[in-house]
Amino acid sequence: MLPKEPDVLYRVVEVLCAAGARGSGYGVNADLVLTAAHVVGDDTEVLIVADGEDLRGDVVWRDAWLDAALVRLPAPQWEAEATLWASVAGVHAVSCTAIGYPKVQRTTDGTRVEEHIAGFIMPATGRRIRRYAINVTTALPYELRRVDSPWAGMSGAAVLSGDGRHILAVITEDPTGFQPSRLEAVPVSELLRDPSFAELVGAGPAAMSTVDAAAPEVVADVHPRRPKGSPSSASSLSTSSAEAIDYDVRQDGLFALGTWSPARKLEPSLLVTDNVPSKDRPAQPYIDHETLAASVRERSRKSSGATVYLTGFRIDHRESDETQYCRIRQASSTYPEVLAIEDLRAGHPALFEECDKAIERNVRDYLTKAVPSSLAMNLVVVSSANEELLCAERSAATDSAVGWWTIGVFETMKQPDKNRPGAPEDIYGLAMRGLREELGLEPHDYHPIQISWIGIFRPILRAHVVAVVKLKIPKAELHSRAGVAHSGYEHAALDWVPLRRSLVQTFVRASRSFPPNTAGTTIEINNRTWTDQSRLAVLEAWRFRNVLDS
């Protein structure tokens, strides 16, 4: 057992994983360690180094979108002590501290050593993406950034209030768009919203308190106070805080596997796609096999086609050389299987109870035994002036959602044509094919494609990818191209909506409807019926609006 005297130093641990990734963690109760999800990756068991002792721990909870995880140790390591949880508020800087094991702080033999940092949080920064920006005021890494970050290994460290009494957040990222003095963390208020997390740690949203710095002296040594009569920082922050856009897309059945940001983009060179042959695809344990097979046979009488679905996902957070890439594993499926899932979801929703629970519990774990479905991409198209979003009305030529509107257009990933064999496409290839077939666009017609979100759309168990792209050509030229495009017949009409904060807030506030005999939901805006994925599309376009031509 570790010392009874409460001391944050004894709760700081190092987390080591089989693939070579390593990070930091913090004991939040007698046998639970809080860390970052990308540190543990897909491992079910990790090594915890606590006070010099190596302990095997089981990963009992993780959430890829929140980027947090809990590891249970085989026996209590800390005296039972109530962990205090808090969020930050106000318009002044809130002091904070963290202890972890960054790569830059190591001995000559490679052993990581504790680094104790101090800094402050500006409460309004990052509210839209539900993250805290940690501004480090102690010594910064001198090591130049090459491929990974000198802060690598600090991920998973708990961000504590300045007095060390409350846990505020978990460090998850070193944003490449800022100097090394900037780290990113997920607030614990987001974690406590998850019922599974709250149950494991024995707390909930009601257990939260608030840390609020009442005066700017907290960071006076870094940012001296302005002379009397000059504008204050409080006035510049209050508007941003009041207008923050906050929405959890899981309410629309969308569960994230990975997200990217304008500061940390996915690049084609960092994407690795593995393809699993039909004979080797994993067996799904969730839906009765005979019932599913019967529905597939029924659909096969009138439909055919070869599609793919996700069976694995691992995202890079630069914690080790092994995890520099986004790794996607996909297996073969058929279009009748896709339609069978939609039929059963609409007619026999009880069949999906165990499947839905598995996705809610851990969407990455679900993928390893996923029900065969498909992978579709929502191509969100922004006008060349960066001021409008393309929207499309689905025509009667489509199989579902006729008359409904979408933000951008959709394309489904297919298996290579057996008569014209070639390499299977990845998500960037899917994006280019979708822009060409749906809208008649070629690569020289648009700026680089920005993949921003990958996850699972639970109603039909489909992998869902969002890509945002900005046009180089005028809107009128796009309409001309789309009119003669290969799949242009799928759209009854094309239109544009303004990419403004007011539009985003309108979509966020819109209530959901539940159309009969369908798998998903809709939202009603301006006398139009929009698909349930439209809200995510608008949010992603708003997030990436300032970097689409880079």
Layout of helices and strands:
Layout: E1 12-16, E2 22-29, E3 32-35, H1 37-40, E4 45-50, E5 53-63, E6 68-72, E7 84-89, E8 94-100, E9 115-121, E10 132-136, E11 158-161, E12 166-173, E13 182-187, H2 188-191, H3 195-201, E14 208-212, H4 233-242, E15 254-259, E16 271-276, H5 289-300, E17 306-314, E18 326-334, H6 335-347, H7 353-361, H8 363-367, E19 375-382, E20 388-394, E21 405-407, E22 409-412, H9 427-439, E23 450-457, E24 462-470, H10 475-482, E25 491-498, H11 501-509, E26 512-513, E27 522-525, E28 528-531, H12 534-544
Parallel strand pairs: 7-12, 7-14, 16-18, 19-24
Antiparallel strand pairs: 1-2, 1-4, 2-3, 3-6, 4-5, 5-6, 8-9, 8-11, 9-10, 10-13, 11-12, 12-13, 15-23, 17-18, 19-22, 20-21, 20-25, 23-24, 26-27, 27-28
Helix pairs in contact: 5-6, 11-12
Word description of this protein:
The structure is a single chain. The protein has 550 residues and is of the alpha+beta class. It folds into 2 domains: 8-220 and 235-240, Thrombin, subunit H, CATH 2.40.10; 253-544, Nucleoside Triphosphate Pyrophosphohydrolase (Alpha-Beta Complex), CATH 3.90.79.10. The protein has 12 helices and 28 strands. Strands 1-2-3-6-5-4 form a 6-stranded antiparallel barrel. β27 and β28 (528-531) form a beta hairpin. α5 packs across α6 (335-347). The longest helix has 13 residues, at 335-347. The protein is globular. The termini are far apart. Residues 1-6 and 214-244 have low confidence and may be disordered.
